[in-house]
Specification:
eight-stranded mixed sheet; elongated; binds adenosine-5'-triphosphate; iron-sulfur; 4 iron, 4 sulfur cluster binding; Iron-sulfur cluster carrier protein
Length: about 325
């Protein structure tokens, strides 16, 4: 029977312009090739269902065959690590992600910190992710999407995980339906043990950001993290100095409780970019506790994260060149 696809033109009303790459009607069988690039699993299924039911409503169509195609989604994973806990790695991850989103990127965050998953608190969202076709759907907050071990288990429970259990749960986060996310930041657990190693091997990040306070102790541990990245061939995209100077809100005098400048010197010594310095700021601590990331607002803290995000994008471009 002749192929006369004209009646299928109707389907343009169902799919966004250009998504239907080819259409054919032969012997009552409608065959469509549909480009689903950039759509998450749910949107793909929804589009397929709508096209199928619309096609079956067209006179002369008795069967519908749909092939979905997608251009390879280019996605960059960046690990955020520190040698030591409590230096602000999670705070940096959240705010860097939001600053990247404000710079126009589609950003996801994986909270892989088994010792203290804190992204739900930092992002002020206790929403649990749904699963579709056995894949988790990241939760949206402050213009980014995120998944956290803290959403899969109760607070404090992940701490008891070791080995395969932790690795299995982390794999679910990495293999989730990240849709059109272009950059995914992974908030690593502090330290350089087996969990970090497995995670890096699974996620295969394009690079890593290492955060440290200017204290010697934090810096010594940061060097261990840098070594681990080096051993796994994960380029260090840059170092960030957190909790540097403190400006007294009363008298305005600036002091350096943990010292200042050592992280920048370390970056120069090992030949990696210094991405920037964040002050020790009561506003950062208070906003983080309240689930209102400073990067989502305005002011000097938000500007500092925006600057870090810009430098990270430059470092990513340089690493890819
Ligand atoms: N620049 C800053 N100024 C003030 N407080 C900060 C700053 N950075 C982080 N903090 C606070 O320090 C505490 C630890 O930060 P955070 O949880 O981000 O560290 P971490 O390195 O991820 O720790 P862990 O590895 O234990 O999860 C939090 O209370 C956070 O609000």
């Amino acid at each position: 029977m002749a192929d006369t696809a004209a009646p299928l033109a109707e389907l343009d009303k169902v799919a966004d312009a250009g998504r239907i790459r080819s259409r054919k009607l032969d012997g009552g069988i409608a065959t469509l090739v549909v480009d689903v690039t950039g759509l998450g699993d749910q949107d793909r299924s929804a589009l397929e269902r709508s096209l199928r039911s619309a096609a079956l409503g067209i006179a002369g169509v008795s069967e519908v065959r749909i092939a979905l195609t997608a251009a390879q989604q280019s996605r960059t994973i960046v690990a955020v690590g520190s040698g030591k806990g409590g230096v602000g790695k999670s705070t940096l991850t959240t705010n860097l992600a939001i600053a990247l989103a404000r710079a126009g990127k589609r950003v996801g965050v994986i909270d892989a910190d088994i010792y203290g998953p804190s992204q739900p608190t930092l992002l002020g969202s206790e929403e649990k992710p749904r699963a579709e076709n056995d894949r988790l759907i990241p939760v949206a907050a402050h213009g980014i999407r995120f998944l956290s071990l803290g959403q899969l288990v109760g607070a404090g429970q992940a701490l008891a995980w070791r080995g395969p259990m932790a690795t299995g749960a982390l794999s679910r986060l990495i293999e989730a339906d990240w849709g059109d996310c272009e950059i995914i930041l992974v908030d690593l657990p502090p330290g350089t043990g087996d969990v970090q190693l497995t995670l890096l091997q699974k996620a295969r990040p394009a690079g890593a950001v290492v955060v440290s306070t200017p204290q010697d102790l934090s810096l010594i541990d940061a060097r261990r993290a840098i070594d681990l990245f080096g051993k796994l061939n994960v380029p260090v995209l840059g170092l960030v100095e957190n909790m540097a100077s403190y400006v007294c809100p009363h008298c305005g005098e600036s002091s350096d409780p943990f010292g200042t400048g050592s992280v920048e010197r370390e970056a120069a010594a090992i030949g990696v970019p210094f991405l920037g310095r964040l002050p020790l700021s009561r506003a950062i601590r208070a906003a983080s506790d309240e689930g209102v990331p400073p990067a989502s607002g305005t002011g000097s803290e938000s500007d500092a994260f925006a600057e870090l995000a810009g430098k990270l994008l430059t470092a990513l471009d340089t690493a890819a060149a």
